[in-house]
Amino acid sequence: MTQREALLAAAKKCLVDKGYGGTTARGLAAEANANLGSIGYHFGSKDRLMNLAAIELSSEWGNALEQAARAAGGATRAERLRSLMAELLAMIPQSQDIQSASLQALTQSKFDEKLRAEIEAGHAHARAELAAVVLGQPPPDPDSPTARGLGTLLYALVMGLVAQAVVEPGALPDSDLLASALDTLMENDPPSAQAGDRS
Amino acid sequence: MTQREALLAAAKKCLVDKGYGGTTARGLAAEANANLGSIGYHFGSKDRLMNLAAIELSSEWGNALEQAARAAGGATRAERLRSLMAELLAMIPQSQDIQSASLQALTQSKFDEKLRAEIEAGHAHARAELAAVVLGQPPPDPDSPTARGLGTLLYALVMGLVAQAVVEPGALPDSDLLASALDTLMENDPPSAQAGDRS
DNA sequence: TAGCGAATCGTACGTACGATCAACGCTACG
DNA sequence: CGTAGCGTTGATCGTACGTACGATTCGCTA
Question: Which of A41, A122, A159, B188 has the CB geometry, 3.0–4.6 Å to B163, for a possible disulfide?
């Protein structure tokens, strides 16, 4: 492995283990068994290396999400939505590291335009993909009302579940409970009492 | 204003403007017109000050969310859900600062247990409140299936919309578009084509 | 008004940081 | 065999950091 690769891998590991602020150039070099000066040679600066690592981790998270989304299926929209949620709930606990790193990237994007642009592109892609899965159609244009409405709604669900899972990894509901909550939202109007209560 | 108050206010401002990592003890003292040594005297350390500021900003965001949620109303669940979404979409652009700060707090919570516990408590409260609003009932126990199912679902929606708004402040759909997306999800089964398309 | 504790102040210390640079292999190619 | 170029090395630069400390001032009480 070249020092460049090792440094990038170390940056990803440190981003997960120590966070953006807790990572130092010397810590990266040590983790990568690389020379301190190599950071400047290969990446220009420590910040640029960290931002690149954040972008790549966000991209990995996007791929994991896309894979989960494409595994979902069903004959009706409601079934596909439920299947999507089940796939998500199965996937989220397995990729907590890249999720927390992606959230760090999201917050850092406020202070780095390149990072922001990359993440924005990833979001747009995710919105279109998620809308496509639920509608059972090919992905719409990212600027279409479908992507901006339904896509934003679905992606909000995904990111919101991830955000809660990062704080409380064990607190996500199981697939059945989430499905019954979806039913509760979709049912018409029983003026009180929730449908999905169990045990 | 005492130096303690000034420092805490400065920490909130710096958290928003420069981020967790970009804030220095000297920058805080300068922003607060306070003495550098006062940080240690009043808060123990710069990190403890920053964590306290993050907790308070998260709490402010929780209050803003609660206020918006309680402003929602309607005769049926579907109406209350739609009203809630409309209130959220109106509130989100007005409190972007505390939202981005809260997201920073969320990511930092992985590295500070006290911060994590505070945020977890805030999430639990929000889940119960949101479920209560949509069901038109008093808030359920935070551990109830209602809060863990419907509450998690609704809070995921909220956090997901916020996450997208932080990256692209102008990209949130308007209330009508989001409502039609909700309709799309709730309708039964037209095997293709989306209901809510417009212009 | 003397005394006391809390708050504020200025400063200095030691450390760790990110960046830089000349020197040095190593490899590939002429 | 030479040499040109890329990657690597270790050392060093200047700086900015967070914290600690003693001196000083403020506000209150007796």
Answer: A159
Give mean pLDDT, residues A123-141: 96
Structure tokens at A27: 């810590």
Q: How far apart are CA A75 and CA A187, in angstroms?
A: 19
Give contacts of B 36-75 with A, CB under 8 A: none
Are the beta carbons of A156 and B156 closer than 8 angstroms? yes
Task: Choose the closest CB to B120 out of A18, A168, A180.
Answer: A168
- Judge whether A57 and A101 are in contact, CB under 8 Å: yes
Say if CB A66 and CB A126 are below 8 A apart: yes
pLDDT (tens digit per residue) in A71-128: 998 999 999 999 999 999 999 999 999 999 999 999 999 999 999 999 999 999 999 9
* Nearest residue in B to A77, CA atom: B189
> Domain extents for chain B?
48-186
Q: What amino acid occupies position A187?
A: E
Q: Is A6 part of the contact surface with chain B (CB cutoff 8 Å)?
A: no
Mutation site, B185, B189, B197, B198, interface A, largest A CB count within 10 A: B185
User: Using the CB atom, is residue B46 less than 7 Å from strand D?
Assistant: yes
The answer to whether strand D lies under 7 Å from the CB of residue A111 is no
**Smallest Cα–Cα separation from B61: which of A119, A102, A163, A154?**
A163
Check CB contact of A138 with chain B, cutoff 8 Å.
Answer: no
CATH class of the A48-186 domain in this structure: mainly alpha
